[in-house]
Amino acid sequence: MTAEQSPDSLKAYIDEHLPAFLPAIAKADGGTAAEAAAYSLAVGGKRIRPVLLLATAQMCGVAKAEALPFAAAVEMIHTYSLIHDDLPAMDNDLLRRGRPSCHAAFGEANAILAGDGLLNLAYETLFEALVVKSTPERLAAAAELARAAGFRGMVGGQCLDLSESLHEEPDKALYAIQRKKTGALIRAAVLAGARLGAAGDDVSGQLTDFADALGLSFQIKDDLLDVQSTSGTLGKTTGKDARDGKLTFVTRYGGREAERIFAAEMARARAALSELEAGGLFVTTLRAIWRYLEQRTV
Amino acid sequence: MTAEQSPDSLKAYIDEHLPAFLPAIAKADGGTAAEAAAYSLAVGGKRIRPVLLLATAQMCGVAKAEALPFAAAVEMIHTYSLIHDDLPAMDNDLLRRGRPSCHAAFGEANAILAGDGLLNLAYETLFEALVVKSTPERLAAAAELARAAGFRGMVGGQCLDLSESLHEEPDKALYAIQRKKTGALIRAAVLAGARLGAAGDDVSGQLTDFADALGLSFQIKDDLLDVQSTSGTLGKTTGKDARDGKLTFVTRYGGREAERIFAAEMARARAALSELEAGGLFVTTLRAIWRYLEQRTV
Predict the structure, then answer these.
(1) B119 to chain A, minimum CA–CA distance in Å?
(2) What is the three-class DSSP state of B26?
(3) How many beta-carbon pairs below 8 A join chains A and B?
(4) Domains of chain B with bracketed CATH
(5) Would the ipTM clear 0.90, i.e. be above it?
(6) What is the pLDDT of residues A192-228, one digit of tens each?
(7) Does A121 sit within 8 Å of B116, measured CB to CB?
(8) What is the pLDDT of residues B209-223, one digit of tens each?
């Protein structure tokens, strides 16, 4: 594997180029919300979604510079969702990625606007990329991201997560929430990479299996870390799920069973990678991301 | 003028087709936010932005069915902004278009998500329209709307409106807020119609003059109606601007001077229409919209 293709180098590539997508607006011109958005975007995190997008695109023969606007857009969408999820009316969280959450730092109104603006900026970025070069593949990639972020995906999942009456069927609700709230955008990131590279149905199907299994185990690991880690290590409030009576894989099934499902899903993701490899694809980077996610402690 | 082209028939066309753009999601699948969005979208209003878009597109030779997804998107963007503006952390308003505002009816979390989902749905709608038929003109129209809605437009304007320190230069702030918060999307609606019809620079310039003057007078009329009308007539809380110490054309300059600026801007808009007409364009519908806005009492 060349240095070019390691997950770390892809993450560094995102971190380096992301700020340039934000418009520089003076505070006197209404730039406080943009400043708040820049703050949340800069605080960082693992950049899993854009790294997955770039890695998949590269695997399908697309240069990372070509995929960059799409990767930036998916990280903007993810970051907006964190800002809004942390709001007092939602999860009411003051800590995010080891620093004050957006509304804790900039006030509630600016955090709402920062989220709105970031979501919108994701689409400004995608349209600009399409104006530069419009192909059916690039359009399909953009549409994939948009669908996953909306009512049928992430927004619907967060709504479901906040709804108490739905927890009457907790097993069903738990998987439905995960699939929409976190799974949809992870799957869309991978599939957008595949669309950019005009991947065929076979490869897209295998990548969907990979992404769905990886997304589910990613969520379960988050649930596990909420009880196994500390706020200092994790950079967000821990132990909160049980306290808030939140439905998670750990509060529902207990830690040991959650570990078992995690391992089973990671195995499923690995199997999908082996199939892709058997089909002649170069899965080294995706496998390195898999390994990183298996071992992560934050 | 045929019945086809009256502002009323264009508004009826929007009202008829808008609901079909919303995804039908069962409540059990996280559909409460979508239901809240459908509520706010159905409550109606004047549909000025989509009517302007359709009228301009028709003037530039584009059939209304072709322009419909763009018109629907601009109304979704407008409605999301109303939902978020009404939130407790923003303007804190319980009444909108004669009925409870979105968060008054569905709770704050659902209103935040309904707004997020509607904004996203605008872009899902645009991408779907582009997948069906991708031309540089349609892409330019979509990009025009996206730019106007973001940090450099509507989001920046709302941020400016909430910022107290900026009111140190009230005249400058007042015009800057209007230009971004309400003006940008009205201008974008008109220009998107022009882009769809591949209008040249001359026509686009005249339409920009028309839209900017119309947008400014639209805002001034809103400010005037806040003091001249009643909540019952207007369907939203009136007399609120002065009570909240809000910077408006009326609180800043007084009613008489606001009336004078309104009339001057309406004259400027009419002059732009005459120029378009002199260039051989059929401005009957835009003129009818102008007349409706001049006389409106709600």
Answers:
(1) 8
(2) coil
(3) 183
(4) 3-295 (1.10.600.10)
(5) yes
(6) 999 999 999 999 999 999 999 999 999 999 999 988 8
(7) no
(8) 999 999 999 999 999
DSSP 3-state of B100: strand
Does A267 contact B at CB distance below 8 Å?
no
Inter-chain touch B109–A162, beta carbons under 8 Å: yes
Q: SS3 for A104? A: helix
Residue pointed to by tokens 């099934």: A253
Which pTM value belongs to this model? 0.96
Instruction: Provide the angle, in degrees to the nearest 10, between the axes of the packed helices B108-132 and A136-149.
Output: 160
How close A27 comes to chain B (CA, Å)? 8
Residue B166 has φ and ψ, to the nearest 5°, of -75, -15
* Lookup: tokens for B239: 């007399």
DSSP sequence for B153-212: THHHHHHHHH-SGGGGSHHHHHHHHHIIIIIHHHHHHHHHHHHHTT--HHHHHHHHHHHH
**Chain A CB within 8 Å of residue B155 CB:** yes
Distance CA B129, CA B295 (A): 35
Q: Are A121 and B151 an interchain contact pair (Cβ–Cβ within 8 Å)?
A: yes
- A107 CB neighbours in chain B (<8 A) are 89
Cβ contacts of residue B14 below 8 Å, gap of 6+? B47, B50, B51, B54, B71, B72, B75
Over the stretch B11-66, which tens digit does the pLDDT of each residue have?
999 999 999 999 888 887 888 999 999 999 998 789 999 999 999 999 999 999 99
What are the chain B neighbours of A33 within 8 Å (beta carbons)? 151, 155-156, 158-159
Alpha-helix residue ranges (DSSP H) falling in chain A: 7-17, 32-42, 48-59, 64-85, 102-106, 108-132, 136-149, 154-162, 170-178, 184-196, 201-228, 231-234, 240-243, 249-253, 255-278, 284-295
B108: amino acid identity, one letter: E
- For residue A227, is it left (φ>0), alpha (ψ between -120 and 50) or beta? alpha
- CA torsion sign for A185, A187, A192, A195 is negative
Q: What is the average per-residue pLDDT within B89-110?
A: 93
Q: Does A213 touch chain B (CB under 8 A)?
A: no
Phi and psi dihedrals of B245, rounded to 5?
Answer: 65, 30
CB contact, 8 Å: B95 with chain A?
no
Beta carbons within 8 Å of A284's beta carbon, 6+ residues apart: A1, A5
Residue whose tokens read 């000025």: B48
| Number of other residues whose CB lies within 10 A of the CB of residue B133 | 10
